[in-house]
Automatic annotation (TrEMBL):
Residues 1-22 form the signal peptide. Keywords: Cell outer membrane, Membrane, Receptor, Signal. It is found in: Cell outer membrane. InterPro entries: Beta-barrel_TonB_sf, CarboxyPept-like_regulatory, Plug_dom_sf. This is TonB-dependent receptor-like protein. Its main location: membrane. It holds the Pfam family CarbopepD_reg_2. SUPFAM superfamilies: Carboxypeptidase regulatory domain-like, Porins.
């Protein structure tokens, strides 16, 4: 190597050594206090921190040419301290702040999975236990906690307890106004709400007399002025109205079939239905139809992050329910029930079957014909999919399938040859619904509801003597689209929306010999627009809700305006005053053409209005109520007046006089309801009384005015329930006056080959009396399994209660009386396993 090359290499080594030494000097850590002093001098700022807080802490000094924010950022990364510039010249230094907690549903006291907790510098999502934790920079940061369907919470970090993970209760949006007015209206789980409705929460529900299942449509009959004159869930009468005048909703879907066993038990799975709300006046403008009342059944609205299920078995059916989480934002719920007839026929099943087939061809036939091989089964399946794509969006998909089928053989012997033909009747429903809710912010939300509901009743009556087959069919298909917006501001809530309903009804009568076919198909389309304002004062002791619904029926070019009004005023601490009023209408009704239609099992068929011989049914109702509550005592008194126009004789279940008339008219009903309830420790006892005066007006009948078929003048219920963590025990008595009926004129029963009835509904069947009891025992099998067993007795005294009378002319031209009776003594038992 040349001397020049050696010289150049020496210079290069020296330069590298110098820069290396300079880099080592700059990369050496210095006390942070020294570094802060340099920054203070260069940028004219001061640092505030506790004494000894920075002792023995060293950092790499940032380059002098960096700006202040870059230097602070480098120091934060090295120390994990929080540098908070509280003003242009002051920067505080502190440890990061850890915040944790559990997000809880305030009503159900259950953890909420997927709640979002957002701060200025951090973000978290609650887990399956509702737990979250955040590391924040400042105690002044504002945390925002959101969960779809719940009121947003905003809280500064300084208001969290340091080092403690406390529960944070969130209120549902609807509870902000629809808060409970009276908890435990009858028993635990039945509440009176501030929106003038009564709700039954089956997750909290204890027990009512004679029931061991949370049967939705049986439990609502415990409320004043709600009963069934024939002891079925498919014929519920609210303040003297017929069943077709009730709007039955399952998760926003109108249902045209409500019962299994052709009306003896509800067709809605009790484990899928969480809340049933009953409205008999002052209805929200978003709802239409149901001139007598609304029963709104709702399933769980929140995603459950835990897998669980229920299996149950009673003397009528087996049942299964399961909740299946799908990730953190979705869950699937499946429920099903199936009758036991194909496996075993229990005594309870036989009692129900005999009640359904009483005085029908399935039970009794003409002398030459024998009915045999009676088979009956039912099932229902429901499915729900819940999905929260974000904390502001909520999707729900619902599906329900209901089926009832009864069949029997008719046998006749001719010339030693047996001829056998089968008759059957089937009643089925299938519905699907889609709901989407967008919570734009704490004040504004939008909801879209779409559903299709299909119902079909079909019977095949085989006349083995005449070699004739008679097919009857009644079907309903309804499609609904509804969009509504709700805006809340301070003490006000505003609602604005639109709905479209298309209803198609088909009726078919088909006889093969002689050939006869009649098929009637009707379609009605209706547009509805609605608006409503709801004011509640700051003290929450006064509220008024007023709105109007405009309905336009395109087929008849008819506009119907329906104002609605509800007012509530608290008077002191113990009194509440209510005033309610509403106009409503409906386009469908149920009629009976002949008592032996559909084998006499389910005689009613749905029909649409033609705005002529079958009018649009319109109602007006007003009521006033006073509620007193104090120290476990409750007194609830309501008086009401209701007029319903556009009814037909065929829709009123006449079985005696005017059974075959086809006239239109109206009825007026007025009455009052009285409820006493006392809570004492674990016992809740109640006495309810209802008075009703209900009369028809049919201008074209011989008798223009006469008592309504559903005029139950007096109705009394007395009951008591005891409940603790292990036992629910309940007993009660139901009494009511008999329903009106017409009887033949004594000594002149037949005229011109027809029954000569006396004045319409001038008599009554015998009074109704029933004593019931039930009990459920709850216990734990293991850490993962709970169980309960229960038993009930319906009609303990085995009283033969008449529910209807019929009259027929016999071969001697005399009149025979026939009666249908309610259930006699009926026992049931259940075992359930929760997992």
């Amino acid at each position: 190597m040349s001397i020049k090359s050696k010289y150049s290499l020496s210079i290069l080594i020296c330069l590298l050594s110098y820069f290396s030494f300079q880099g080592q000097e700059k990369s050496q850590k210095l006390p942070i206090t020294e570094v802060l002093g340099t920054i203070s001098t260069l940028h004219q700022v001061s640092f505030n921190y506790e004494s000894n807080f920075l002792t023995d802490i060293k950092v790499y000094p940032p380059a002098d040419n960096l700006d202040l924010s870059a230097k602070i950022s480098l120091l934060e990364k090295q120390t994990n301290f929080v540098f908070d510039q509280v003003s242009a010249a002051i920067i505080t230094i502190s440890n990061p702040i850890k915040v944790c907690g559990y997000i809880i549903d305030a009503s159900a006291q259950q953890p909420l999975l997927g709640a979002t907790i957002t701060g200025t510098s951090a973000y978290a999502v609650s887990d399956e236990n509702g737990y979250f934790e955040l590391v924040l920079k400042s105690s002044k940061e504002l945390l925002t906690i959101r969960y779809i369907g719940f009121k947003t919470i905003e809280r500064q970090v300084k208001f969290f307890n340091s080092g403690q993970c406390d529960p944070i209760n969130m209120l549902e949006q609807q509870e902000l106004i629809n808060a409970v007015l009276i908890e435990g209206y009858l028993v635990k789980g039945i509440d009176k709400n501030k929106d003038w409705s009564t709700s039954i929460d089956y997750s909290k529900f204890t027990l009512l007399p004679g029931l061991i299942e949370s049967d939705v449509l049986q439990t609502v009959q415990a409320l004043p002025s709600i009963l069934s004159v024939d002891e079925t869930v498919s014929n519920i009468n609210i303040r003297g109205g017929t069943n077709d005048q009730n709007l039955m909703l399952w998760d926003g879907i109108k249902m045209y079939q409500t019962g299994h066993f052709f009306g003896l038990i509800s067709s809605f799975n009790p484990h899928m239905t969480q809340v049933a709300t009953v409205i008999n006046n002052g209805t929200d403008v978003a709802l239409t139809d149901g001139v007598s009342g609304t029963i709104n059944m709702q399933t769980e609205q929140k995603i459950d992050s835990k897998f669980g299920g229920i299996f149950g078995l009673n003397f009528l059916n087996a049942e299964l329910f399961s909740n299946i989480p799908i990730g953190k934002k979705s869950s699937l719920q499946v429920a099903s029930r199936k009758s036991l007839d194909e496996l075993v026929r229990t005594p309870t099943y036989d009692v129900y079957f005999d009640r359904v087939t009483q005085d029908t061809e399935a039970q009794e036939n003409v002398a030459e014909v024998t009915s045999s091989n009676q088979e009956f089964n039912f099932y229902d399946t429901s499915l729900r999919w819940l999905y929260n794509p974000t904390d502001k969006d909520f999707l729900r998909l619902n599906f329900i399938l209901i089926s009832n089928e009864l069949s029997f053989n008719e046998t006749v012997a001719e010339d030693s040859i047996l001829r056998i033909r089968q008759s059957n009747v089937a009643q089925n429903s299938m519905a699907v619904g889609f709901d989407y809710k967008r919570q734009w912010n704490d004040r504004l939300s939008s909801t879209l509801n779409i559903y299709n509901s299909d119902y079909k009743l079909q019977a095949q009556n085989a006349d083995v003597l005449a070699m004739q087959l008679f097919l009857q069919k009644n079907s309903v298909s309804e499609t609904n689209i509804k969009f509504e917006n709700v805006y809340s501001q301070d003490l006000w809530q505003f609602k604005l929306g639109y709905s479209f309903i298309e209803t198609e009804v088909i009726n078919l009568n088909d006889i093969d010999l002689p050939r006869y076919v009649r098929r009637d198909e009707e379609i009605v389309r209706e547009h509805g627009a609605f608006t409503q304002a709801w004011y509640t004062n700051a003290n929450r002791d006064f509220s008024v809700r007023a709105g109007v619904r405009a309905n336009y029926i395109t087929k008849f070019e008819k506009l119907i305006l329906e104002p609605r009004l509800s007012v509530r005023k608290a008077i002191g601490d113990h009194l509440e005053l209510e005033v309610l009023g509403e106009f409503k209408h409906q386009n469908t009704s149920q009629i009976v053409n002949f008592q032996n239609d559909f084998l006499g099992i389910e005689k009613r068929r749905w029909q649409l209005t033609d705005n002529d011989s079958i009018p649009i049914i319109e109602s007006k109702q007003a009521s006033m109520g006073l509620i007193y509550k104090n120290d476990g005592w409750l007194l609830d008194v309501h008086a009401y007046y209701k007029t319903v126009d556009g009814i037909t004789t065929q829709s009123q279940s006449f079985t005696t006089k005017y059974e075959f008339e086809k006239e239109k008219g109206n009825y007026d009903a007025y009455g009052f309801e009285l409820l006493f309830r006392k809570k004492l420790n674990k016992i809740s006892s109640w006495l309810s009384y209802s008075y009703l005066n209900n009369a028809y007006t049919f201008a074209t009948l011989k008798e223009i005015e006469f008592p309504n078929n559903f005029d139950i003048t007096h109705s009394i219920t007395l009951g008591s329930t005891y409940s603790n963590k292990d036992w629910d025990i309940s007993a009660g008595v139901n009494y009511r006056t008999g329903k009106p009926t017409s009887i033949p004129v004594s000594e002149n029963e037949v005229m011109n080959d027809v029954i000569n009835f006396d004045r319409a509904n001038n008599n009554r069947i015998q009074d109704y009396l029933r004593l019931d009891a039930s009990a459920i025992y709850k216990f734990r099998i293991s850490d993962s399994f709970n169980s309960e067993i229960g038993a009930s007795v319906w009609n303990i005294s085995n009283r033969e209660n008449t529910i209807n009378n019929y009259f027929k002319i016999n071969e001697d031209d005399r009149v025979d009386q026939f009666s249908r009776f309610s259930l006699g003594l009926t026992t049931n038992a259940v075992v359930r396993i929760y997992f």
